[in-house]
Specification:
The complex is a heterodimer of chains A (about 160) and B (about 375).
Chain A lengths: L7 H4 L6 H9 L5 H20 L3 H8 L10 H16 L6 H6 L3 H16 L6 H25 L5
Helix pairs in contact in A: 3-4, 3-5, 4-5, 5-7, 7-8
Chain B lengths: L6 E4 L7 E4 L5 E5 L4 E8 L2 E9 L5 E7 L4 E6 L4 E7 L4 E8 L6 E6 L5 E6 L4 E7 L4 E7 L7 E6 L5 E6 L4 E5 L23 E5 L7 E6 L6 E5 L3 E6 L4 E6 L5 E8 L2 E6 L5 E6 L2 E7 L13 H11 L18 E10 L2 E9 L3 E6 L1 H11 L1
Parallel strand pairs in B: 9-13
Antiparallel strand pairs in B: 1-28, 2-3, 3-4, 4-5, 6-7, 7-8, 8-9, 10-11, 11-12, 12-13, 14-15, 15-16, 16-17, 18-19, 19-20, 20-21, 22-23, 23-24, 24-25, 26-27, 27-28
Classes of the chains: A mainly alpha (about 160), B mainly beta (about 375).
């Protein structure tokens, strides 16, 4: 079965490549410093909302305009941290209510971050993340999970 | 209710990869994921095998039966398409090879409404629009190439016989002109454009969250286009108003989409049930599942009870019940019109990996659901 390892796309001049798909789905890559500044200011905004006890505002703000693109690993990690801080400050009993108030777009973004948090269990509270996942999939269904898997705009 | 219950045809011959009926719905061409297309004739409630179309040497991917001219076109992973005509003397189907000029599998084929052309989608990033050349007594294909970047997965013809929609694995749905000089008359202007030479791109759309476009369908009057993607969305675009609406469904992705009328769309796929989408005001939304199969009572045992039962009965698994709560027991990969007209579908057929072909009636949908939701 050695032939299965041959990269046939390399022999094809006009193959559809990763970069092209990324460009199609994400658009022109944004400068790294600009995205990082945005992520940091959002982190501060979310933190001040949390301190004022505005949990719904903090959750919604943290899920806006996530950084997408292969060159933004640092900004992505920072933003995941921000989302996670909000997620772990909401009690399990209140989760269902918060999930219901999210828009479809926010639900999909939240599901992305739940999986991102699960990928780094040592940095998050897995029990709480799993509880969120349960509540969110009750509302948004398998469709939301499929969208996270399909979407090339990863967090 | 009994008249409207779905009619289930079970073949038990393997997964159905594609199906198509003849004009009066007395004969059926179906492929059980092999290189052979089987022709069945209706006898009462049963379907009897009358002939087999065996000319392809790789699995057949799509079949379409032209209602008026009674010709069948098949395409396959072997990169070929055949047009089959019935020899009236011998009652045998005779194949004619079509010159597709593609170097990857053919994935999908559909006759144009006038039946003077058909389009074959393929993995070689092109669509072959085929027409009959009298001089050479031969079906030849003309390629739509640009700007397709990946495998074309599905096609649908506009009622004007010229425009062709294509759903593609590069995550885009496109509308092309498939105008063939000498075959087509100049089409009337439509929201898709006025001047339409071959390969004009009349529209290019995405669903917002990515994913392969599994299925495309023009609305009955052709002014709108619906497509479904692997991100479990269904998107409806109407170029006249410039509106693009993506409905995010909370279910598994849809592989096939069909307009019942201007206001209702049915989509089916990995969720094993046809789902209805309706427009209310200006807004499309998910309406209901059309499969009213009875949900099995949820046995509310605790894990401890389950293990105890397994222990006492010597069962190796918690339950031997592997049935799904729907008529289809696996993914539906194709839904097609069975009866009615383009702008008022009365019945549609669905086939899937479970080897069943089910005919659904829409009268109770139109009446029952609109009462329910308005």
């Amino acid at each position: 079965m050695a032939f299965r390892k041959i990269d046939i796309d390399a022999l094809e001049e006009d193959a559809l490549r990763q970069e092209e798909l990324d460009f199609q789905e994400i658009g022109e890559p944004r400068p790294q410093h600009e995205v990082e500044a945005e992520v940091n200011s959002r982190a501060q905004e979310v933190r001040s909302l949390l301190q004022r006890g505005d949990l719904a505002g903090a959750l919604s703000t943290s899920l806006q305009n996530p950084p997408y693109g292969r060159h933004l690993e640092a900004a992505k990690a920072r933003n995941t941290q921000t989302v996670m801080e909000v997620l772990i400050s909401i009690k399990v009993a209140d989760m269902a209510q918060f999930v219901k108030n999210l828009s479809f777009e926010e639900q999909d973004v939240m599901m992305k971050y739940l999986y991102a948090c699960m990928a780094n269990p040592e940095q998050s509270n897995s029990g709480q993340i799993l509880a969120w996942h349960e509540k969110l999939s009750e509302v948004a269904g398998p469709g939301c999970i499929v969208r996270v898997i399909t979407d090339r705009r990863t967090v | 209710m009994s008249a409207q219950a779905p009619i289930i045809n079970e073949f038990n011959l393997g997964p159905i990869s594609c199906h198509s009926f003849n004009q009066d719905r007395t004969e059926l061409a179906v492929c059980f994921n092999t290189n052979v297309v089987s022709i069945f004739r209706k006898a009462g409630a049963a379907w009897n095998l009358v002939s087999s179309l065996a000319e392809h040497d790789k699995p057949v991917t799509s079949v379409d039966w032209a209602p008026k001219s009674n010709r069948i076109v098949t395409c396959s992973q072997d990169r070929n398409a055949y047009v089959w005509t019935l020899d009236s003397a011998t009652q045998q189907w005779k194949p004619t090879l079509v010159l597709l000029r593609i170097n990857r599998a053919a994935t999908f084929v559909r006759w144009s409404p006038e039946e003077d052309k058909f389009a074959v989608a393929s993995g070689s990033r092109c669509i072959s629009v085929c027409y009959f050349e009298e001089d050479n007594d031969w079906w030849v294909g003309k390629h739509i190439k640009k700007p397709i970047r990946s495998t074309v997965l599905s096609l649908d013809w506009h009622p004007n016989n010229v425009l062709l929609a294509a759903g593609c694995a590069d995550m885009k749905a496109r509308v092309f002109s498939a105008f063939i000089k000498g075959v087509d008359k100049k089409p009337a202007p439509s929201p898709w454009g006025e001047k339409l030479p071959f390969n004009t791109v009349c529209g290019e759309f995405t669903n917002g969250t990515g994913g392969w476009i599994h299925s495309v369908a023009f609305s009955p009057n052709g002014d709108a286009l619906a497509f479904t993607g692997h991100d479990s969305t269904i998107t409806i675009v109407s170029p006249a108003t410039g509106s693009v609406q993506s409905v995010r469904a909370p279910y598994l992705p849809y592989l096939s989409v069909l307009w019942l009328n201007e206001n209702q769309i049915v989509a089916a796929g990995h969720d094993c049930a046809p789902h209805l989408f309706e427009i209310k005001g200006q807004q499309w939304s998910f309406s209901a599942s059309l499969d009213a199969a009875v949900k099995k009572a949820d046995v509310g045992f605790t894990a401890r009870d389950t293990f105890r039962r397994m222990d006492s009965r010597g069962q190796s698994t918690a339950s031997n019940d592997t049935e799904v709560n729907t008529h289809h027991q696996n993914t539906i990969n194709s839904i097609r019109v069975f009866s009615g007209t383009r702008d008022h579908v009365e019945q549609f057929s669905s086939s899937g990996i479970d080897g069943k072909l089910i005919i659904w009636s829409t009268d109770n949908i139109a009446k029952g659901l609109s009462n329910l939701h308005l």
